[in-house]
């Protein structure tokens, strides 16, 4: 049967995850066409023309069967309706979309909207003001606005035939699209400037004290809080604070008793959360329990005055807990002077909750654990909740958060996708937030940005939407856009504009564009504001960011103090993950200064915490940090093991950025071991990942590793290109330390080309920066390059001075790699005196280096030492031994991929042969002289 297309000026309509193309007669879910026969489609199109209204049986008969058509109407209609419900995944018993009105007809329940491509037509003609008695904060009644939400127009009226006037920007389309999603939510109104924002009253549902004495009923505190928040948020007339912020506040203020909120507590809460109102109370099972009755007591407080504005009790059975909360919410709304929720909103609120009692309990238990970062326990509860009710979207969304807290990126992405697929029956804003989270976990930054921008512009008084928008803008590589968004947040009314989270998000934005000076400033502002608000966890985050900024600004002296303060605050709030994060930042500072043992202790502390709380991503990070320490100490076997363990965990949890980090570390290990093919493979894989995900810092590190590999292979031109590009990256992101390391590498490349004076300038500049920042290990590497340049210029005293400084640093930090390189440099300088005794002693030193480097598997250093030995022997009485050593070296270096050393050995051999030929010719000349 061929379906007849429906005619009309608009092509598509949407509801939930579905779109209906009325002209093409197609039903699509997430853009995928769903097979639907003609009569079910005709029913759907008629219902969509009258959303929320009853479409009578007679109207359906007239739509489906022309007059005088003989048909078993009831049976045929039931059959067509069954097919429609099957296509929509709907149920007659628990309808999401189509409700049966017995003996009368059907009603379409879900909100119907115009998709962005159609909504743009309608929005282009909206220039008149509209009245909305429910807009604003619920205090002032009706007022005017110039950007109302777009409603479905009646295609049978003249108003449905308005012309299309011009083009609208893509961002506006996104905003209009979400405006349609939220069209009955009565947003805060913008009239062209931030000053026109009419902020809604804010309310935080703090929780309820369990007076029953039964720990098994503790989950009800979370459930009652979330259900009441959902009830109050319907219609968008109040701004409800997110549960995560409330959980943080409770930890910071040690606030557990919801029954005893005094004026002082309320003022603290106001400073911390910036909320106007709070709701708290208690619940208890009643003594007479055949029907399992529960009493819910709640009170409404004004946080600034400390007054109790409202108090009430509701009683209900445990089988109908949501009805109890619904009644309480209805009374609260009346007391607050906001309208009752509509039937449509009531359906959305009801379907946003688990229908299975066991699932509701497990979901609430999981949520409470997620909010205090007990992700292991949360995961277990949420997995059980999903088993009890697999199709409840928010259980999957919460599990995605738990997996993310544990560092399992791929698992988080999978659960976020499931939540998105099941989210069609959620309230509009909740549905969009679920999708935004899915887009974030999938790194679909543009789509996530579009959703958060639309939410924020529709609710411009919602600080959380603005911060979420800025966060995904940073993640999507749009740091400057994020700064612009944060600028808008600073134009909000107080106390929101003074929220320290704005400055904390600015930390990430300015860091992403390489402005570490601004990072330090914003982190200091955030710490001051958080301290004033009593938000100790936010203050700890700000202090940790300060430490990171100081490290990248090459000012490590102040790191220890801020990290110590951050750890203290994290400990007081029982945030173990925060303690570990701060400890790691402190360890990195010590490592940068060459205190590898001190850094290792910090990393061990963090690792123990991460293992205890099950944070696999943190475990992988610390394993990688251990690899860095072992690599610096010259323990290549231990470094390789740590990097491999780290890589294995990163792969298991699906963290691709971490994979790039560990592969770069392994590339460095293989480079030192002389396994050039494996080194190149790892470094190229790391570079590819970094470029794909936009991680500039790790991209620079991988490029530098490839540059040094190419230098070893003898490709000086490409090595110079890679090292120069790496330096440019670090310069752009403001990493002075890494940029200076690139200068040392460039100096070494100049030395290979006998550009000794230029090399000395580069190495000296880098050494001065490292001295200033107390980065002793990096300074020692610069000293060795400078010593080599001075030796080539014949400045033996200066060369020896820098070599000795490098050796002292190497011995102090027990950095074997540096010590071996310094040993070769010392031997070359001593041999340059030309004294036979010095030369013999130098050859002895070099032989010791060869043995130590070979034992430690520093293949490149061993080959470098063999080159030095061969050159010294050529200048000694034992030239034959030198020629033999150099010939063997050339062969070994070439076969191992060390093209540069092979060429140097060949050059030394040729010079030795030329010297031998000149010597022989001179001898023959003396023999024939009369």
> What's the count of strands?
14
Tally of helical segments: 39
* Structural class by sheet pairing and helices: alpha+beta
- Radius of gyration of CA atoms, rounded to a whole number: 35 Å
The residue fraction in helices comes out at 55-70%
The profile of the biggest β sheet is: 5 strands, mixed
Beginning-to-end CA distance, first to last residue:
121 Å
Outline type = elongated
Mean pLDDT: 83
pLDDT < 50 stretches: 1-9, 119-196
Beta strand %: 5-15%
Widest sheet, order of strands: 11-10-12-13-14
Topology of this structure?
Layout: E1 12-15, E2 18-21, E3 26-29, E4 32-34, H1 38-49, E5 54-56, H2 57-64, H3 73-88, E6 98-101, E7 105-108, H4 116-123, E8 130-131, E9 144-145, H5 170-181, E10 202-210, H6 219-233, E11 239-240, H7 243-253, H8 263-273, E12 277-285, E13 293-302, E14 308-317, H9 321-336, H10 343-351, H11 357-370, H12 375-388, H13 393-406, H14 409-421, H15 428-441, H16 445-458, H17 463-475, H18 479-489, H19 500-512, H20 516-533, H21 536-552, H22 559-572, H23 576-592, H24 596-613, H25 616-633, H26 636-653, H27 656-673, H28 676-693, H29 696-713, H30 716-733, H31 736-752, H32 756-773, H33 776-792, H34 796-813, H35 816-831, H36 836-855, H37 859-874, H38 879-895, H39 899-927
Parallel strand pairs: 10-11, 10-12
Antiparallel strand pairs: 1-2, 2-3, 3-4, 5-7, 6-7, 8-9, 12-13, 13-14
Q: How would you portray this structure in words?
A:
Helix content is 64%, strand content 8%. The strands form four sheets. It has a five-stranded mixed sheet. It contains 39 helices and 14 strands. Residues 1-9 and 119-196 have low confidence and may be disordered. With 930 residues, the protein is an alpha+beta fold.
């Amino acid at each position: 049967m061929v379906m007849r297309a429906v005619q009309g000026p608009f092509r598509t309509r949407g509801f939930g995850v579905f779109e209906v193309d009325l002209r093409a007669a197609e039903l699509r879910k997430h853009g995928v066409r769903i097979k639907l026969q003609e009569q079910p489609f005709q029913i759907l199109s008629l219902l969509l023309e009258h959303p929320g209204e009853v479409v009578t049986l007679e109207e359906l008969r007239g739509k489906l069967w022309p007059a005088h058509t003989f048909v078993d109407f009831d049976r045929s209609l039931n059959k067509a309706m069954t097919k429609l419900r099957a296509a929509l995944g709907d149920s007659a018993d628990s309808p999401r979309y189509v409700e049966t009105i017995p003996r009368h007809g059907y009603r379409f329940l879900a909100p119907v909207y115009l998709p962005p491509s159609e909504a743009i037509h309608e929005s282009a003609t909206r220039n008149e003001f509209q009245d909305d008695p429910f807009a604003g904060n619920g205090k002032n009644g009706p007022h005017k606005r110039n950007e109302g939400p777009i409603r479905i127009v009646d295609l049978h009226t003249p108003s449905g035939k308005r012309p299309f006037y011009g083009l609208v920007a893509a961002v506006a389309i996104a905003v209009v699209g979400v405006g349609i999603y939220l069209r009955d939510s009565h947003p805060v109104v913008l009239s062209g400037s931030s000053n026109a924002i009419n902020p809604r009253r804010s309310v935080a549902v703090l929780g309820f004290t369990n007076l029953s004495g039964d720990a098994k009923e503790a989950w009800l505190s979370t459930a009652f809080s979330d259900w009441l928040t959902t009830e109050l948020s319907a219609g968008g007339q109040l701004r409800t604070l997110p549960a995560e912020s409330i959980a943080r506040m409770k930890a910071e203020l040690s606030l557990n008793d919801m029954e005893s909120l005094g004026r002082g507590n309320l003022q603290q809460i106001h400073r911390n959360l910036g909320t106007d109102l709070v709701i708290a109370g208690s619940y208890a099972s009643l003594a007479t329990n055949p029907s399992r009755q529960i009493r819910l007591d709640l009170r409404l407080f004004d946080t600034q005055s400390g007054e109790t504005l409202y108090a009430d009790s509701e009683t209900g059975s445990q089988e109908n807990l949501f009805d109890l909360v619904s009644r309480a919410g209805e009374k609260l709304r009346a007391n607050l002077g906001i309208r009752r929720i509509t039937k449509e909103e009531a359906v959305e609120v009801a379907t946003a909750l688990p229908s299975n009692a066991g699932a509701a309990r497990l979901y609430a238990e999981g949520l409470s654990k997620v909010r205090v970062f007990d992700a292991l326990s949360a995961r277990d509860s949420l997995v059980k909740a999903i088993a009890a009710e697999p199709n409840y979207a928010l259980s999957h969304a919460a599990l995605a958060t738990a997996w993310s807290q544990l560092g399992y990126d791929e698992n988080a992405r999978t659960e976020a996708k499931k939540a998105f697929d099941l989210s069609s029956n959620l309230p509009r804003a909740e549905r969009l937030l679920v999708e935004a989270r899915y887009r974030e976990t999938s790194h679909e930054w543009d789509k996530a940005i579009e959703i958060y921008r639309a939410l924020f512009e529709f609710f411009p008084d919602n600080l959380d939407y603005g911060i979420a928008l800025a966060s995904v803008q940073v993640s999507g590589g749009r740091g400057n856009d994020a700064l612009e968004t944060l600028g808008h947040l600073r134009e909000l009314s107080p106390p929101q504009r003074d929220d320290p989270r704005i400055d904390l998000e600015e930390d990430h934005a300015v860091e992403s564009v390489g402005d570490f000076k601004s990072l330090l400033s914003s982190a200091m502002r955030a710490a001051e504001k958080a301290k004033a608000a009593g938000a100790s966890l936010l203050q700890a985050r700000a202090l940790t960011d300060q430490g990171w900024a100081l490290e990248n600004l090459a000012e490590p002296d102040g790191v220890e103090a801020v990290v110590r303060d951050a750890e203290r605050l994290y400990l007081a709030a029982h945030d173990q993950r925060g303690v570990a994060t701060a400890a790691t930042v402190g360890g990195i500072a010590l490592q940068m200064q060459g205190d590898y043992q001190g850094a290792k202790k910090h990393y061990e502390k963090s690792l123990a915490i991460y293992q205890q709380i099950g944070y696999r991503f943190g475990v992988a990070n610390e394993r990688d940090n251990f690899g860095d320490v072992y690599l610096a100490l010259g323990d290549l076997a231990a470094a390789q093991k740590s990097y491999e363990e780290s890589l294995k965990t990163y792969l298991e949890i699906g963290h691709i950025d971490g994979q790039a980090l560990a592969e770069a570390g392994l590339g460095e290990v293989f480079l030192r071991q002389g396994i050039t093919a494996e080194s190149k493979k790892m470094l190229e894989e790391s570079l590819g990942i970094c470029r794909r995900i936009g991680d500039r810092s790790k991209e620079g590190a991988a490029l530098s590793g490839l540059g040094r590999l190419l230098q070893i292979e003898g490709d000086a031109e490409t090595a110079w290109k890679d090292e120069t590009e790496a330096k440019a990256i670090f310069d752009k992101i403001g990493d002075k330390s890494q940029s200076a390391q690139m200068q040392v590498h460039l100096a070494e490349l100049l030395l290979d080309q006998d550009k000794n004076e230029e090399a000395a300038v580069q190495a000296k500049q880098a050494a001065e920066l490292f001295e200033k920042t107390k980065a002793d290990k990096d300074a020692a590497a610069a000293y060795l390059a400078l010593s080599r340049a001075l030796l080539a210029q014949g400045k033996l005293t200066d060369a020896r001075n820098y070599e000795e400084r490098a050796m002292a640093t190497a011995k102090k930090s027990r950095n074997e790699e540096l010590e071996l390189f310094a040993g070769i440099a010392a031997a070359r300088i001593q041999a340059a005196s030309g004294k036979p005794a010095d030369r013999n002693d130098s050859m002895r030193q070099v032989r010791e280096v060869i043995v130590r480097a070979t034992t430690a598997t520093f293949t490149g250093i061993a080959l470098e030492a063999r080159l030095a030995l061969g050159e010294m022997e050529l200048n000694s009485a034992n030239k034959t031994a030198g020629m033999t050593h150099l010939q063997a070296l050339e062969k070994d270096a070439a076969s191992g991929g060390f093209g540069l050393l092979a060429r140097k050995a060949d050059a030394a051999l040729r010079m030795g042969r030329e010297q031998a030929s000149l010597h022989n010719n001179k001898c023959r000349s003396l023999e024939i002289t009369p």
